[in-house]
Specification:
The protein has 5 helices and no strands. It is mainly α. The protein has one domain. α2 runs parallel beside α4, α3 runs antiparallel to α4 and α4 runs antiparallel to α5.
Length: 163
């Protein structure tokens, strides 16, 4: 049974999610943030040196994402959204959020928005969050439910999607 589910996931994942991975969306968001900063800055909200506060979420987000990726490696499972998970990871940051890699990404992008210092780049942050959630997170959760059944449903009931 589990083999059939995994084969079905492998066969349909490329169709449901397309070929673009999350870093493509992040790169596009960073380009959009730069464009917003240069073309429609709206208002200067953080002047130097106050804009350097953006370094905190940038590094915190990177640390969170790297920690989550290392936990996946420890459990011998893949962080790839198109891959088939070999284990349900629920420790470390996964005790607080079901998606620490995506949360880390949003923190990093928020840090970059603060570093720009203008309001325009902040418009991109919720758009990226929405896209990551709609294109990846919700579909990955469906896949996890198919693979891990009640164990994942129980985990979902205990731990929030984001924070």
């Amino acid at each position: 049974m589990k083999g059939d589910v995994m084969q079905n996931i492998r066969g349909n994942l490329g169709v449901t999610l397309g070929k673009r991975k999350p870093p493509v969306y992040v790169f596009a968001a960073l380009v959009a943030m730069l464009a917003a900063h240069l073309l429609v800055p709206i208002a200067l909200v953080l002047v130097f040196p106050w804009n350097l506060i953006g370094l905190a979420p940038l590094f915190l987000g990177a640390a969170l994402a790297v920690y989550a990726i290392r936990l996946f490696a420890t459990h011998k499972t893949t962080p790839e959204p198109f891959g088939v998970s070999g284990a349900l990871v629920t420790g470390g940051p996964f005790r607080v959020t079901r998606n620490p890699m995506y949360l880390g990404t949003i923190l990093m992008v928020s840090g970059v928005a603060a570093l720009f210092g203008t309001a325009g780049p902040w418009l991109v942050v919720p758009v990226l969050g929405y896209l990551l959630d709609a294109v990846f997170v919700r579909r990955e959760e469906e896949k996890m439910e198919l693979l891990f059944g009640d164990a994942y449903k129980n985990y979902k009931n205990r731990v929030r999607r984001w924070i």
